[in-house]
Design goal:
- The chain folds into two domains: 80 residues, no CATH class; 261 residues, Dihydropteroate synthase-like (TIM Barrel, Alpha-Beta Barrel), CATH 3.20.20.
- The chain has eleven helices and twelve strands.
- The strands form two sheets. Strands 10-9-8-7-6-5-12-11 form an eight-stranded parallel beta sheet. Strands 1, 2, 3 and 4 form a four-stranded antiparallel beta sheet that branches.
- α3 crosses α4, α5 runs parallel beside α6 and α10 runs parallel beside α11.
- The mean pLDDT is 91.
- The chain binds ligand 7PM.
Length: 366
């Protein structure tokens, strides 16, 4: 299925409504609430696929509501409902302020101080340090999905991540997500105490993943990728990357709902760097608020990625922290709810100051 019309909220400004009930439409003519964030938005960018091309126009809210959209009316109305509805808590976590997901890689190269036990203990210590720095979610991953990388065998992935989840559970109240494409890893991680499933293939890689995820009852994070990690960045092809990613995520959300995973348990992620060249990645970054029309919270993972290296000519990922922070603030400015990052303390500081400066409040991240 390909949509012909898309609506993107633009013109974010601090909401004046406070925490009360939604004012009726007439009173909100100046702006509509954005997806349970502290923002209202002032206008729509209406985007239409026409033939092989795409046309865009920015219209005020009042013009949009007064105008006859003809055959597009229903599709546009659904998107508008979806983008302004507040988001329910995710595994107990409220999403009315930006949330930080700290990356915990459990791969042999990430903790190089010796054998497997050492790397399990180092990963647990690292995760606890990230929790201390203010991570709301700890994302445990044992399969390197780096562009060009080989798949990791099931037993090896289990040996890496399960002891880390078991070790962490009981030591922290922070949410634990498991970054995996494998149904068996999801099942075992859930049994070990994981709270969220994070799949860079949006539950497409493993034919059993959709049902296992539904049976687990856990929330799922669905990421867009084009192709398999091994080859995905060789020659990615899109008609319009921003819209094609929307269509993919919309289809995957529908597949989840059909399998018994309601929208209240779904997060969507456009997948920076996964089957995307630089011009694709920056187009997705600039268009992030479009994805609020999916009706679920958004997750952005651009931390230390090649996009930053290419934009600024920085070869070593460790030197990409300032650029990573810029992606977080750009995402926050478009109402993205969750940020997957390596540098939790730095991200927290940046978001706190951003929140204070944009909204004029001192208690931004609570
Ligand atoms: C090596 C290079 C190892 C790159 C891992 C990576 C995302 C993710 C990853 C993301 C979600 C990384 C990637 N990226 N899950 N897992 N979104 N939801 O840079 O962008 O961390 S792995």
């Amino acid at each position: 299925m390909q949509r012909s019309i898309y609506v993107r909220p633009v013109g974010m400004f601090p909401a004046k409504g406070g925490d009360g009930p939604l004012p009726d439409q007439a009173e909100t003519w100046g702006g509509l609430p954005l997806a349970g964030t502290r923002f209202d938005f002032a206008a729509f960018e209406v985007i239409a696929r026409e033939g092989t091309g795409v046309v865009r126009r920015t219209v005020s809210l009042s013009e949009a509501f007064e105008r006859d959209w003809g055959r597009h009316t229903l599709a546009a109305a659904d998107l508008i409902d979806a983008m302004h509805a507040p988001r329910p808590r995710l595994a107990g976590l409220s999403l009315d302020r930006p949330r930080i997901m700290g990356i915990v890689n459990v791969t042999p190269d990430s903790f190089s101080d010796g054998g497997r036990l050492g790397s399990v203990e180092a990963a647990i210590a690292h995760a606890l340090a990230l929790a201390d720095q203010g991570a709301d979610i700890l994302d445990i991953g044992g399969e390197s999905t780096r562009p060009g990388s080989d798949a990791v065998a099931l037993d090896e992935e289990l040996r890496r991540v399960i002891p880390v989840i078991e070790g962490l559970r009981g030591k922290t109240d922070q949410l634990i997500s498991i970054d995996t494409r494998k149904a068996e890893v999801m099942k075992r991680a859930a049994a070990a105490g994981a709270d969220i499933l994070n799949d860079v293939s949006a539950l497409t890689h493993d034919p059993k993943a959709l049902d296992v995820a539904a049976e687990s009852g856990l929330p799922v994070m669905l990421m867009h990728a084009q192709g398999d990690p091994k080859t995905m960045n060789d020659n990615p092809q899109y008609s319009d990357v921003v819209l094609d990613v929307f269509d993919f995520l919309e289809r995957r959300i529908q597949a989840c709902e059909a399998a018994g995973i309601p929208k209240a348990r779904i997060v969507a992620d456009p997948g920076i760097g996964f089957g995307k060249h630089l011009h694709h990645n920056v187009a997705v970054m600039a268009g992030l608020s479009l994805y609020h029309g999916l009706g679920v919270p958004l997750l952005l993972g651009a931390s230390r990625k090649k996009m930053i290296g290419q934009l600024c000519d920085v070869a070593d990922p460790k030197d990409r922290v300032p650029g990573s922070l810029a992606t977080v603030l750009a995402g926050a400015g478009q109402g993205v709810q969750i940020f997957r990052v390596h540098d939790v303390a730095e991200t927290r500081q940046a978001l706190m100051v951003w929140l204070a400066s944009v909204f004029g409040t001192e208690k931004g991240l609570g």
